[in-house]
Amino acid sequence: HSSKSGVTHFMCDNEEETLMSIRELLSFLPSNNMEDAPLVPCNDDIHRQVEALQTVIPEDPNMPYDIKDIIEPVLDNQYFFEVMPHFAKNVVVGFARLGGRSVGIVANQPAWLAGVLDIDASDKAARFIRFCDCFNIPLITFEDVPGFLPGTIQEHNGIIRHGAKIVYAYAEATVPKVTLITRKAYGGAYIVMSSKPTGADVNLAYPQAEIAVMGAEGAVNILYRKSAPEEKAEIIKEYEDKFSNPYRAAERGLIDEVIMPRDTRYKLIQALEMCHNKNQSNPPKKHGNMPL
């Protein structure tokens, strides 16, 4: 159930480990839904730069890397409490602290299925997002997503309906929402992962981020499939220079700031502080109609 069905969130070896996991989970949560996320003293410098982040992401956009190599170094004391680590590994979720404040982490995992969204990953992310919103825990999203998983199995089982759960969860959430695009942000999956159109408060991006309908090579192979290889290579380079970068998105207001990877910790804490007094409520209604 911890790896196939996703029914269980944690798997422990004994009773003591189980109780310690429960205790650790509760440390990130407020006493009730009316309180803010817990704030504890922070002895980790909020201005701490992480030079190692400058080289974590490979130059080849098709090479995988572990998103936790970006997440963990920027957190308070580099501690990440992962939830459902064995289920739908293409999405990583869990709790952490930034500047002493509890936050929920949602991230695509390029090391597993290239970080694509599928049915299980969509359900896992949507469930976690709604849980955080229930208890006023800010959301930090690390985005590197090439799209939704293709195939008849996914289509026949309603991948669109399941993917819509993430959109719904993010749009419904009233907590502070900060997004960092580390590399790829393609097509509908980009919109799904806490983009400006779904109500994200602050959207950051690394200089190598690619925000587009699809990758340059894929787009050129469709639009110019009859062209010579040399011509295709030239068009790909032009496409990348013009569209596959965060600056065009920043011009359109979809990205608030392009940051250097080493500054990730401070920029995330700064964004959270800016959104700390956010006071948003959804229109009065009996309840929303989540795409179940």
UniProtKB/TrEMBL annotation:
Residues forming the CoA carboxyltransferase C-terminal domain are 45-274
Concerning InterPro entries, the annotation shows: AccD/PCCB, AcCoA_carboxyl_beta, ClpP/crotonase-like_dom_sf, COA_CT_C
Which SUPFAM superfamilies would you find in this protein's record? ClpP/crotonase (SSF52096)
**What keywords appear on the UniProt entry?**
Transferase
| Top-level taxon | Bacteria
Q: What is this protein called?
A: Methylmalonyl-CoA carboxyltransferase
Can you name one GO molecular function term for this protein? Answer: propionyl-CoA carboxylase activity
Please provide an example of a Pfam family that matches this protein in its UniProt record.
Answer: Carboxyl_trans
User: Does the record bear Lipoprotein in its keywords?
Assistant: no
What is the native source organism of this protein?
Answer: Phocaeicola vulgatus (Bacteroides vulgatus)
